[in-house]
Amino acid sequence: MSVKVTGFREWTTCKFFVVTKDGSRELSGGWTVGPRGNKLWYPLESAVPESKVAAFVITWRQGSLQIPAG
């Protein structure tokens, strides 16, 4: 799977979580947006089986964004 997220300012630190169907959050990784942030890839992994994924959450200092799975 790949996810494209835009609009973050340079040097924003983000964390990426997988939300399971029972509501728990599993941290998959994080990154700091560097120069030309819209041109970079930040590979992450999760041990959560696809059948148990309900959503994804990206957090940063000023907020969060939840993305439904599927």
Describe the structure.
The chain is an all-beta fold and 70 residues long. The chain has no helices and four strands. The protein has one domain. The chain is 0% helix and 43% strand. The chain has a four-stranded antiparallel sheet, with no helix packed on it. The protein starts with 12 loop residues before the first strand and ends with a strand. The model has no long low-confidence stretch (mean pLDDT 88).
Radius of gyration: 12 Å
Determine the fraction of residues in helical runs and give it as a percent range.
under 10%
Main β-sheet, spatial strand arrangement? 2-1-3-4
| Shape summary | elongated
Q: Whole-Å distance between the termini?
A: 11 Å
Poorly predicted tracts of residues: none
Structural class: mainly beta
Sketch the topology as an H/E string, one letter per element: EEEE
Biggest sheet descriptor: 4 strands, antiparallel
Considering the chains and any ligands shown, give keywords for the structure.
70 residues, mainly beta, four-stranded antiparallel beta sheet, 0% helix
Topology:
Blueprint: E1 13-20, E2 25-32, E3 53-60, E4 63-68
Antiparallel strand pairs: 1-2, 1-3, 3-4
Short description:
With 70 residues, this protein is mostly beta strands.
